[in-house]
TrEMBL record, chain A:
Entry function: Plays a central role in 2-thiolation of mcm(5)S(2)U at tRNA wobble positions of tRNA(Lys), tRNA(Glu) and tRNA(Gln). Directly binds tRNAs and probably acts by catalyzing adenylation of tRNAs, an intermediate required for 2-thiolation. It is unclear whether it acts as a sulfurtransferase that transfers sulfur from thiocarboxylated URM1 onto the uridine of tRNAs at wobble position. Prior mcm(5) tRNA modification by the elongator complex is required for 2-thiolation. May also be involved in protein urmylation.
Composition bias type Low complexity, residue spans: 347-363
InterPro entries documented for this protein: CTU1-like_ATP-bd, CTU1_C, Ncs6/Tuc1/Ctu1, Rossmann-like_a/b/a_fold, TilS/TtcA_N, UPF0021_CS
Protein name: Cytoplasmic tRNA 2-thiolation protein 1
Localisation: Cytoplasm
Pfam name, any one: ATP_bind_3
PROSITE patterns reported in the protein's UniProt record: UPF0021
Broad EC category: transferase
Keyword list, A-Z: Cytoplasm, RNA-binding, Transferase, tRNA processing, tRNA-binding
GO molecular function, a single term: nucleotidyltransferase activity
Automatic annotation (TrEMBL), chain B:
Signal peptide feature range: none
Coiled coil feature spans: none
A Gene Ontology BP annotation from the UniProt entry: tRNA wobble position uridine thiolation
Keyword annotations: Cytoplasm, tRNA processing
InterPro entries: CTU2 (IPR019407), Rossmann-like_a/b/a_fold (IPR014729)
Ranges of compositional bias, category Low complexity: 422-436
Principal place of residence: cytoplasm
Tagged with keyword tRNA processing: yes
Region (Disordered): 417-444, 468-487, 519-538
UniProt-recorded name of the protein: Cytoplasmic tRNA 2-thiolation protein 2
Superkingdom in the source lineage: Eukaryota
Similarity annotation: Belongs to the CTU2/NCS2 family.
Record HAMAP family: CTU2 (MF_03054)
Organism name: Actinomortierella ambigua
C-alpha cells in the first residue's frame, strides 16, 4: 500500500483513502482527518471566544439527540486533550412528552454511564405542575411550542442553579444559527437579530424568562459546526443518540426558513457560514444605529426572574394555564385579555387577568424547591466526572437510535424568538 | 379583514373605496380597498413621501437626479411618477416653503444587456445554421426588433428627460473608472483551479498581472476597444465563473458601477433606483445569504451615501411590486420586456443553474403570498440598520466597491480548519500546557495553515509560492506575446476583497475559459487581434474599474506595508495578519516612482 498510488486519497493527509465528502468544504477526507478538523474547529471556537475559564463547572444541555450527544462527547474529549480543566455535567429537561422525551431521556442516561458525566433531570411537571402532555390536552396542538420553549429555557436555568454551574452549553449548530438569522430578518426582530449570533449569552438577554442574577452563561460551541457534520461525526464515532422528531409538530414559518436554508446550502455549501458572517455584521449594524431602542430588562414581579416586562413570560403562560385561559401570552395577549374581560362582564364576575403590574404570588417558588428532590442518584457522583475522563474517551457505544430531535434545536422552534432559549 | 379595519378605527364599507367612500372599490391591496383614481393618488403620495424622506436635512434644492431605468415595471413606474412630480405647479412649492421641490433636472439612464444573450446565440447561430431547431431559437435573440436601448430612449424622449444609454460591455471602457483615465490594465492570471480549491478548502488565490500605465502595454489602441473585444472580455469574465450565483453577483456589481459612474458623468448628484419593497426584501435576504451582511445597510437604505460623489436613493422601497404593476396597468405604461439575461448556456453542471438570487426571490414571493406582510417587515428590519463607521470608501473592495471588513480570512480559517492532523496537533498541544490555550498560539497555527496552501497569511512558505507564480507568469507573457515588458509584477489580491466577493470568487475557474475561447476561435478568429488562443494559458482581463481600485488599494496598502515592515523588523511575528500579508506582497507592489522610471526606459 505505501508505494501503490492511492485511488482516492484524503485531501489532507494524502495517505489514506478518503471515505467522506465534507459538507462544509467539499473536501474529500478520511475518517481521522475529519475527526481532526471537526474537533479542532470546535476547539478554536472555544478558545477564540474564551468560552470557559479553568475550573468552570459546565452543564451540557442534553436532550439525547445528536447535537447534544456529540457535544457531550466532544467536550469531554477536548477537555481531556487540551486540559481545559472543566467540570462537566449533563442537564436534561423532562417536558413530559410520552413517546418522545421518555425515550430520549433513556439515551441521556446511557450517555451518563458511557461518558461518566453526572446527570440531572428536571421536569416540567415538578417545576410548573404541568407536563407538556397536560398542556397539549388543554390548548391543543397549535402554539404549544411556545409553552415548551419558554418553560424549557427557565427550567434549564433552574437546573443550572441546582447544579451550581457557571455555564450551560447547548448543541445549537451552525444551521440553527443561520436559520435564526433568517427568521429574525423575516420577522423584523431587531433585538434578537442583534444577539442571535453571539456565541455567549447571559441569561439576561433572552425573552423575558431568564433567571435573575444567576450569572449563568450560555454558549454554543457548535456555532460554526454544520448539522450534517454533526450527524457524520456521530455516525462515524458510532455514538448513541436518539433521532426522532418531537411528536408535537414543528411550526410552518420556521419550516419555510429551514427549507430555504437547505436550498441555499445546496447551491453554495458555504451559505450557512456566510449567513452567520452576515448575521454577525448585522448585529454590529443594529448596535450602530443609536436610534433603535433595545428593550431594557427588569425583574418579574412575581417570581423575581429577569424579564422584559413586569411579569415574565413563564409566569404569564402559567397564569393562563392555571386560569383556563391558555391563549394568554400566546400571540395577542391584549386581544385575549379583552375577550376575557368581555366574557367576565357578561357573566357578572370580575377577576382581572394578570397584567404586567399585578403582583399575584403564584405557587412557583415552592415547585422550584420541589424539583431538587428529583435529583437522580447520579448527581452524587458529580465530582467523579473528571477523574474518569481517560476511560470516557474510548466509548464507542452501539447505535441505539431511538427517536427525537434535540432539546436544544427544538427550543426555539415553535417559539420562534429564541435561539438562546435552550 | 373588515374586523381588523374596524378595530383600527377606520371608517370603511366593504366594497367601497376606502378613500373617497363613494366609488366602488376596484383594487384591494394591503387589506385596503381603493377605486382607481384614489389608488393612483395614494401611490403618488407614497412616492413623494419616499422622496421627501430621502432628502437630507441640509440638502439644497436643485440637485439633478439620474433615474436607473431598466425598463422593468418598477423603474417604468418610477419614470412616470417623476413626470408627475416634475409637472407639479410651482405654486405648491411656494405654498410649502418648508418642502421645496428638491430636484431640478431629471435624467434617465439605461444599461443595455443584450450582448449577454445575442453574441452567444449569435455564435451558435453561425455554427449551426443548418440545424433548424437551434437556428430558430437563436434567431430570436438577434435584435431584429428594437434594442432595449432604443426603447428606453424612446420612453425617456416621451417625457422629455435627457437620456443616457450604455451597453453593459462598455464596462471595459476606461471612462467608467473613477478617474475616467486609463490607469492600468490587470489580467487575472491565476486562481487555484476549482479542484485544487476544493482540496485546499481555502480562499481563492487571485493573482493579477498589473500594468500600472498604458505605456507599458504594447497595444495602446486598447484604450478604445472594439465592441467585439469588449463583449468578448465580458464573456470571458463571466465564462470563468462556474455558478449562476457568481455570474449574477458580478453582473450586479458591474451594473452598479456603470450607474454610479453615469450619475457622475451626467453631472447628477443623486442616483434613483426603482427598487420596490418586494425587490428590496429579496435583496436583503440575498445579501445576507451571500455573506454581504456588512454591506447590507448601505445597499438597502433609503438614502445611501457610501459611494463618493453619488448619493443613491430608493424612494419606491415602501411600495410593493404589485402596486407598481397595477399603477402601470392603470396608466397604460408599457414596460420593456426583459429579454432575460440568459447565463445558463455557459454553465456545465446542472446544479449550478440555480442561484441564490433566484432561490431567494421565489422564497420571498412564496412567503409573501402566505404571510402578506413579509416584504414590508423585512424592509423595516433593514431600515433600522446602520453601517458601522470603520469602513471607508477609500478602502473599498476592488470587485464590488463595497466596504471591506478586516480579518475575514482569519475568521474563516479558524472556523474551517484545513490542515492535516499532525501539524496542528503538535502546535496546539504545545500551546495548551497550562490552562486553556492562548488565542495567540491558535492564530499562529491558523497562519501556517494558510501559508502552506499558498493563500494568504503564512510566514515560511510564502516565498516559495511566489516564485512559482512568477515563473508561471513569465510563461504566460511569452506565450501571448502581447506584452513587451518581460516580467510584470503580479499582485495577489484576494486579501483586498470583501468577504462576499471572496466567497463569490471561489466559483472562479479559469479552465472554463478554454471551452469558451475554443468556441470563439471557431467563429471570428480574424476579427479580434487580442484574441486569447486556446494554446495560451487561460486568463481574462479585469474591468478597468476593478483594476483602478486594485491599484489604489495597492498604493494605500504599500504605504501601510512599509510601515508594517519597519515595525515588524524589531517585533515578533505575532501581529495583525493583514499586515503580515502586505509585507509579503510588498516586493510586488508598484508605487508611483517605479512607474515613472519604467516610462523613462521605454
Amino acid at each position: 500500500m505505501p508505494s501503490k498510488p492511492l485511488k482516492n486519497p484524503c485531501n489532507l493527509c494524502q495517505s489514506v483513502r478518503a471515505i467522506l465528502k465534507r459538507p462544509k468544504t467539499g473536501q474529500q477526507l478520511c475518517k481521522e482527518c475529519f475527526f481532526h478538523v471537526f474537533e479542532t474547529e470546535i476547539h478554536n471556537t472555544i478558545v477564540d471566544n474564551k468560552l470557559f475559564k479553568r475550573g468552570d463547572r459546565v452543564a451540557i444541555g442534553a436532550s439525547g439527540g445528536k447535537d447534544s450527544t456529540v457535544l457531550a462527547y466532544v467536550l469531554k474529549l477536548l477537555n481531556d486533550r487540551y486540559d481545559y480543566g472543566l467540570d462537566l455535567m449533563l442537564l436534561s429537561i423532562d417536558e413530559g412528552i410520552t413517546g418522545y422525551r421518555d425515550d430520549s431521556l433513556e439515551t441521556v442516561k446511557r450517555n451518563r454511564d458511557q461518558y461518566q458525566i453526572p446527570l440531572l433531570i428536571v421536569s416540567y411537571k415538578e417545576l410548573y405542575g404541568w407536563s407538556m402532555d397536560d398542556i397539549v390536552k388543554e390548548i391543543g396542538r397549535k402554539n404549544n411550542c411556545t409553552f415548551c420553549g419558554v418553560f424549557r429555557r427557565q427550567a434549564l436555568d433552574r437546573g443550572a442553579i441546582m447544579l451550581n454551574v457557571d455555564h450551560i452549553v447547548t448543541g445549537h449548530n451552525a444551521d440553527d444559527i443561520a436559520e435564526t438569522v433568517l427568521m429574525n430578518i423575516l420577522r423584523g426582530d431587531l433585538p434578537r437579530l442583534q444577539r442571535c449570533t453571539s456565541i455567549i449569552t447571559n441569561d439576561t438577554s433572552e425573552d423575558s424568562s431568564g433567571i435573575e442574577t444567576s450569572k449563568v452563561l450560555r454558549s454554543k460551541p457548535f456555532k460554526y459546526t454544520y448539522e450534517k457534520e454533526i450527524v457524520m461525526y456521530a455516525y462515524f464515532k458510532k455514538l448513541d443518540y436518539f433521532s426522532t422528531e418531537c411528536i408535537y409538530s414543528p411550526n410552518a414559518y420556521r419550516g419555510h426558513a429551514r427549507v430555504f436554508l437547505k436550498d441555499l446550502e445546496q447551491v453554495r455549501r458555504t451559505s450557512i457560514v456566510d449567513i452567520i458572517h452576515s448575521g454577525e455584521a448585522l448585529s454590529a449594524s443594529v448596535v450602530a444605529n443609536t436610534t433603535t431602542k433595545l428593550p431594557t430588562l427588569t425583574t418579574c414581579t412575581r417570581c423575581g426572574y429577569i424579564s422584559s416586562n413586569a411579569l415574565c413570560k413563564a409566569c404569564l403562560l402559567l397564569e393562563g394555564l392555571n386560569r383556563g385561559l391558555p391563549q394568554l401570552g400566546v400571540g395577542h395577549s391584549a386581544k385575549i385579555r379583552r375577550q376575557h374581560e368581555e366574557r367576565q362582564r357578561d357573566s357578572g364576575t370580575s377577576t382581572p387577568l394578570p397584567t404586567s403590574s399585578s403582583p399575584v404570588v403564584g405557587g412557583e417558588e415552592s415547585t422550584v424547591l420541589a424539583a431538587t428532590v428529583t435529583l437522580p442518584s447520579s448527581t452524587s457522583s458529580v465530582d467523579t466526572g473528571n477523574a474518569q475522563t481517560k476511560d470516557g474517551l474510548d466509548y464507542e457505544a452501539k447505535v441505539v437510535v431511538t427517536h427525537m430531535k434535540d432539546l436544544e434545536t427544538r427550543i426555539g422552534q415553535l417559539q420562534m424568538p429564541s435561539l438562546h432559549s435552550t | 379583514m373588515d374586523n381588523s379595519l374596524a378595530k383600527k378605527g377606520r371608517n370603511t364599507t366593504p366594497g367601497y373605496c376606502f378613500k373617497c367612500k363613494i366609488a366602488k372599490s376596484t383594487i384591494e391591496i394591503r387589506y385596503t380597498e381603493y377605486c382607481n383614481p384614489c389608488f393612483l393618488i395614494y401611490l403618488d403620495h407614497k412616492f413623494r413621501t419616499g422622496l421627501r424622506n430621502s432628502r437630507g436635512a441640509n440638502q439644497t434644492p436643485g440637485d439633478n437626479v439620474l433615474i436607473a431605468f431598466s425598463g422593468g415595471p418598477c423603474s417604468r413606474a418610477l419614470v412616470h411618477l417623476f413626470e408627475f412630480y416634475k409637472s407639479l405647479p410651482a405654486e405648491i412649492n411656494a405654498k410649502n416653503p418648508g418642502q421645496p421641490k428638491t430636484y431640478n433636472e431629471i435624467h434617465v439612464a439605461h444599461i443595455d444587456e443584450s450582448c449577454l444573450n445575442t453574441p452567444l446565440s449569435y455564435l451558435e447561430n453561425d455554427k449551426e445554421t443548418p440545424s433548424t431547431g437551434s437556428g430558430v431559437g437563436a434567431g430570436a435573440g438577434v435584435p431584429a426588433t428594437k434594442t432595449t436601448m432604443e426603447k428606453a430612449q424612446a420612453i425617456a424622449a416621451m417625457y422629455g428627460f435627457p437620456f443616457h444609454g450604455v451597453r453593459i460591455e462598455d464596462i471595459y471602457d476606461i471612462e467608467w473608472t473613477e478617474s475616467e483615465k486609463s490607469d492600468g490594465v490587470a489580467t487575472l492570471l491565476t486562481c487555484l483551479p476549482k479542484e485544487q480549491l476544493a482540496i485546499s478548502g481555502q480562499a481563492p488565490e487571485l493573482v493579477a498581472q498589473i500594468y500600472a500605465s498604458p505605456e507599458e502595454r504594447s497595444t495602446p489602441e486598447s484604450q478604445s476597444l472594439s465592441r467585439e473585444e469588449k463583449v468578448q472580455r465580458l464573456q470571458q469574465l463571466l465564462g470563468a465563473l462556474t455558478t449562476l450565483t457568481a455570474k449574477e453577483t458580478v453582473l450586479e456589481h458591474i451594473r452598479q458601477r456603470l450607474l454610479t459612474q453615469m450619475t457622475k458623468k451626467a453631472r447628477c448628484d443623486v442616483l434613483i433606483t426603482g427598487t420596490s419593497a418586494t425587490k428590496m426584501a429579496i435583496q436583503i435576504l440575498e445579501l445576507t445569504a451571500l455573506g454581504r451582511g456588512y454591506a447590507l445597510p448601505h445597499e438597502t437604505a433609503l438614502v445611501s451615501t457610501w459611494v463618493d460623489g453619488c448619493k443613491t436613493i430608493r424612494p419606491l422601497k415602501d411600495i410593493l411590486q404589485r402596486e407598481l404593476e397595477l399603477f402601470n396597468a392603470l396608466k397604460g405604461l408599457d414596460t420593456i420586456p426583459n429579454n432575460g439575461v440568459d447565463l445558463e448556456p455557459t454553465l456545465q453542471a446542472k446544479s449550478a443553474a440555480k442561484s441564490i438570487g433566484r432561490l431567494t426571490s421565489s422564497f420571498i414571493v412564496g412567503l409573501d403570498k402566505e404571510f402578506p406582510s413579509t416584504a414590508a417587515t423585512v424592509c423595516k428590519t433593514a431600515a433600522k440598520l446602520t453601517m458601522p463607521a470603520e469602513a471607508t470608501y477609500q478602502n473599498r473592495c476592488p470587485v464590488c466597491a463595497g466596504p471591506v471588513q478586516q480579518g475575514v480570512q482569519t475568521w474563516k480559517s479558524r472556523i474551517t480548519v484545513t490542515t492535516p492532523p499532525s501539524s496542528s496537533l503538535s502546535s496546539s498541544s504545545s500551546s495548551s500546557s497550562s490552562s486553556l490555550p492562548a488565542a495567540d498560539a491558535g492564530h499562529g497555527q491558523a497562519d501556517t495553515g494558510c501559508g502552506s496552501s499558498g493563500i494568504c497569511c503564512g510566514s515560511g512558505s510564502r516565498s516559495g509560492a511566489l516564485s512559482t507564480r512568477t515563473g508561471e507568469q513569465g510563461r504566460c507573457g511569452s506565450n501571448s506575446g502581447s506584452h513587451t515588458s518581460p516580467a510584470q509584477p503580479n499582485l495577489e489580491f484576494s486579501s483586498l476583497l470583501c468577504y462576499g466577493c471572496l466567497t463569490n470568487l471561489r466559483d472562479l475557474d479559469l479552465k472554463q475559459l478554454n471551452h469558451l475561447s475554443a468556441r470563439d476561435d471557431d467563429n471570428d478568429d480574424d476579427d479580434t487581434a487580442a484574441q486569447t488562443h486556446v494554446s495560451s494559458p487561460p486568463a481574462f482581463v479585469l474591468p478597468p474599474f476593478m483594476t483602478e481600485t486594485l491599484l489604489n488599494r495597492q498604493g494605500y496598502d504599500s504605504a501601510e506595508a512599509y510601515k508594517a515592515a519597519s515595525a515588524a523588523a524589531s517585533s515578533t511575528n505575532v501581529r495583525d495578519p493583514r499586515e503580515a500579508l502586505r509585507e509579503q506582497i510588498q516586493e510586488f507592489l508598484i508605487n508611483d516612482s517605479d512607474d515613472g522610471s519604467d516610462d523613462d526606459t521605454e
